[in-house]
Amino acid sequence: MAEAHQAVAFQFTVSPEGINVHLSHVALKQVYLSGLHSWKKRLGRLRNSFVTGVYPASPASWVFVAGTILLAQFWRLDPSMGLIGKIQEHLPGRGYLSEPTQAALCALAFATVLWLALILTMRSILKLLLSYHGWMYEAHGKMSHTTKVWLALVKIFAGRKPMLYSYQACLPRLPVPTIHDTMQRYLESVRPLLSDLQFQRMAALARDFEHSLGPRLQWYLKLKSWWASNYVSDWWEEYVYLRGRGPIMVNSNYYAMDFLYVTPTPIPAARAGNAVYAILLYRRLLSQEQIKPLMVPGTLIPLCTAQWDRVFNTTRLPGEGQDCIQHVSDSKHIAVLHAGRFYRLRLYHSGRLLRPRELQAQFQHILDDPTPPVPGEEHLAALTAGDREPWARARRTYFGSGKNQQSLEAVERAAFFVTLDTTEQGLTGPDPGRALDRYAKALLHGQCHDRWFDKSFTLIIFQNGKLGVNAEHSWADAPIVGHLFEYMLATDAFQLGYDVNGHCKGEMDPDIPPPQKLQWEIPEECQQVIQGSLRVAQALADDIDFHTFPFKQFGKGLIKKCHTSPDAFIQIAIQLAHYRDKGKFCLTYEASMTRLFREGRTETVRSCSIESCNFVRAMMDPAQNPQQRLALFRVATEKHQALYRRAMTGAGIDRHLFCLYVVSKSWQSPGDSPPARPLSSRLSSSTSRTTRTTFPVGVDSGRWMTMAMAFPTSSLARTCSPSTCPARSPAPRRMLTALGHTSAPPCWTFWHCSV
Hints:
The chain has 755 residues and is an alpha+beta fold.
């Protein structure tokens, strides 16, 4: 209880002899350092807000403008054309100031107004420039004179040394597509999936919607687009994520995987110490806004960085009917789970971050603690893995006061969550393929009670030193967590490192108090709710057939040599494999980002197109020769890239239809109804542009098929019953041959579903 004694700043006792006061200088020092640290953070945030608020100008530019105006005044020049004199006439307190002082103050006031006007002008011009997307539709390696001039103007008005959020006010708003364009593109996307009769009926319904209900709903979206920063994102977060009542484990949460072939240290406490310290360095850069804003590769075009705001100190809180996202401005501790026991680990001591070696000692103390979990504590985290309604009711009933409330707040208000897993994972054992399957499943759902799925992300450390991340999806998309994860891996491996024995480098302070074990009093009724959530989560986890394997034969470099988009190649390969497996086409989902716009998140690319279907049929037709297939493949890839560009530039289909649907449910005249029951996506795919992330690829017969992109190797996955004999599909190899690549590698294995 050393930490409890240090937490008391003073004690006093009353006795017949009088009052005795005992001060704790250690505690007072901690209070002073904590307050100093807090004030430094506040002043830093205030400074960053000011610098970001005046971007693309800088505070130094005000000095230049003010100096120029004052110099002009000294030389008896009036650049204000009489405005400075007008200001001087209405200057309050003129009688108490000398003429030179009045002139200087009025000149400074005019300079400030002029400076602000210049900032607004530059920001408006930059926003207008960033609304141009013609550069995206030009052929690779070729640039028109218009685009060259546009890039030069962007470089002029984009400012220098931007901070993380500098471009936010300059980003354009997501445009609302016209009803006519959306209906045309919708019909085009469903044409390969419908018979002639079905398509004629769908077209008639679409025309009716376009001329009757659609314009009324569109008016509300237009109004919202003028008022809100983004007409989609808030509704997307609420209706797609927060109103979901099913488990977020598997259905929403995703994971990131460690290096496959390298383990920096086999000591879990040491790996946890370095990883947590690297993440805290990232958090410091984030709080200081020193992370450079992301740009479109090879350009000066900024992407929206709004999602970075909730990386840390964020938790999804369960609610009855709808969840909410809790974000606190700062948190000085993390929550740790090991062997069913919860701990609060403080991150600061004497006003500084704990060093990696000190963090290792803290984690080792948790690993060595023999204290057993109290009844109900071991499976407590299963509440976050099951359905949301039972968790919301249990949280309100059993965690609203006393020890449970304090301990739950320690978890929910933590910077992030850490699980010290009791298993070993990675490419281990006699069957590395199966080991990789277990590794992926451990990151995706674990034992269903050893991750806090509500936290923004959970860092998972395994017994053999491997690690990974499980992230909640509502607050941000995968690239944000991927950026953090890449920084953590790089800092751990190349900056921090380990000594010859595998321990963290550096010194440690032996006086740092150990982690505090959280206290719970979980009644029998709550334990029954926990077990109910655990059964739901385990049934969902058992329904996951997961198979991943490293694919090293070729990657995007070989595909680019064929003058083909790697993304289009993969998507068309998926179409071909699915048709070989099912004998039919289906609506396919691919995620595209819309972060060219303010607060943009994602849009759907419907990658099953008429052109891709024509190519697949040609591949299945033995009468077609390679030249004909190649021509159809080129057309299909060009079409896919056009669809992707549309989605990125705000001309997609699904988010517009989604918002129209939300408006229709909020306001709907009697007799109005959607034009038709929407088709569901049977395949859902996404190309990972982060280090190692797994995304859903499809759902069939209640089972998930996943596609794991593991840089620098990638892997595809199967979904089938354990007794199924997997069959191979040489789709990509044949595609490369059709593209004229004579040294095609062995076939890319697609595992087929027989359930």
